[in-house]
Amino acid sequence: MLRHGLQVTRVFCQTVLHTVSARPLRSAILRLIPRTALLPWLSSRAVSVSEWPLLSSPPRDYSLPNPSWSTEMRRLYEYYDSLCEKEMEGGEKKPGGWGRLPSYNRTLKYAAGGKCLSKLLKEKARLFTRNTEEQGAAFEYVVFMNKSEKRCVCIFQAGHLLEGPPGNVHGGAIATIIDTSLGTLAGYLSGIVMTANLNINYCSPIPLGSVVLIDSVLDKVEGRKTFVSCQVTSSDGSKLHTEATGNAVAGLPIPRQSQHATLKKKMSNTHRHLKHTFHGRLNPSFAYFKVCFPC
Ligand SMILES: CCCCCCCC/C=C\CCCCCCCC(=O)SCCNC(=O)CCNC(=O)[C@H](O)C(C)(C)COP(=O)(O)OP(=O)(O)OC[C@H]1O[C@@H](n2cnc3c(N)ncnc32)[C@H](O)[C@@H]1OP(=O)(O)O
Fold first, then answer.
1. Atom 23 of ligand 1: nearest residue by CA position
2. Which residues form the Thioesterase domain (predicted)?
């Protein structure tokens, strides 16, 4: 009976809150509801308040296995996952040196725990490599990072929407996944970066639907520039498909004078959100990278 009552309350609250579109009214209602009391009823999943805000379902982590993954993709995922540092019984950490990076389609929003940072972001914007919900259709990938070796491995399965030459992957799609891997490595090591330069040699075509490995390493850091390179090989490493070098520049480009004040204000709002989300435990500007660096 009580369970039924709670369910009705949950559905009622969800309906009201989704129907109320006026923002001030919606936030007034949200303020009136005691979070800790209602959260377990309103969310079908068990999430803690500090992990995820009221009424939002946790974002999808695209780096986790899904039914479209081939046996080879799963095998490689399980291999690298077994090398990852894991919490063991008794709180001890199993050393491994590797870590899987989560991946979201709205990175800044989700990395900040769902706080709305959409002033900085376009509401409809999505990470290019994660812009379809159809599993297996385009970019299926997961990045494993080895911080001590300054290296990352991306396991990539190319879906049917990435066709270029018949039966093979489009060169632009290959460039995209290379940019993602190199950008992720450079960003992980040097903070916020923009790719300034990318050189690619396409050595042999990648068959559509196949699984390849993108092994990226740090070459050197010179001031703001982080030089990285990678090799794209078949999943058993026997065939070289592509090789690339890149240079990523750290820090945001200096905005024009007229944009400066607005950007500064937006960034300080973002920092406030991050500070609030992480309860001031971390330097908010780096919370995004240190807590859950996405790719
Ligand atoms: C708000 C950001 C938040 C990021 C959040 C990340 C989310 C993570 C989520 C998921 C991860 C997925 C990972 C994806 C990764 C994708 C990465 C991309 O695709 S980035 C898009 C394509 N790149 C551009 O659009 C850059 C356009 N260019 C620029 O903005 C500027 O030119 C920039 C920033 C690269 C440099 O501009 P300056 O004004 O800051 O600095 P100057 O003085 O021009 O250059 C600094 C140094 O770099 C060299 N440099 C500049 N451009 C170069 C070039 N093309 N080639 C070689 N060197 C270059 C210069 O010679 C200079 O070197 P010297 O310090 O003098 O030694």
1. 195
2. 167-239
Determine contact, residues 114/56, Cβ cutoff 8 Å.
Answer: yes
Active site residue 81: no
User: Which listed residue (61, 179, 215, 236) is catalytic?
Assistant: 179
Q: Do β-strands 193-202 and 240-250 pair in parallel, antiparallel, or remain unpaired?
A: antiparallel
pTM (predicted TM-score):
0.75
Q: Measured from the CB, is residue 295 less than 6 Å from ligand 1?
A: yes
Among 249, 254, 293, residue to substitute to test ligand 1 (most atoms within 8 Å of Cβ): 249
60/77 Cα distance (integer angstroms):
18
Amino acid found at 294: P
pLDDT in tens, the chain (295 residues): 444 554 444 444 444 344 333 344 434 433 443 333 333 322 323 333 345 555 566 789 999 999 999 999 999 999 999 999 776 666 666 666 899 999 999 876 666 555 555 555 567 888 999 999 999 999 999 999 999 999 999 999 999 999 999 999 999 999 999 999 999 999 999 998 999 999 999 999 999 999 999 999 999 999 999 999 999 999 999 999 999 999 999 986 555 555 556 555 655 555 554 444 433 333 333 444 444 577 7
Atom of ligand 1 nearest to the CA of 182: 15
226-231: long-range contacts (C-beta < 8 A, 24 or more apart)?
A: 226/186, 226/189, 226/190, 226/193, 226/250, 228/182, 228/185, 228/186, 229/182, 230/178, 230/181, 230/182
Number of other CB atoms surrounding residue 44 within 10 Å: 10
Domains parsed from the chain with CATH numbers: 2-42 (no CATH), 71-250 (3.10.129.10)
User: What gap in Å lies between CA 127 and CA 198, rounded to an integer?
Assistant: 19
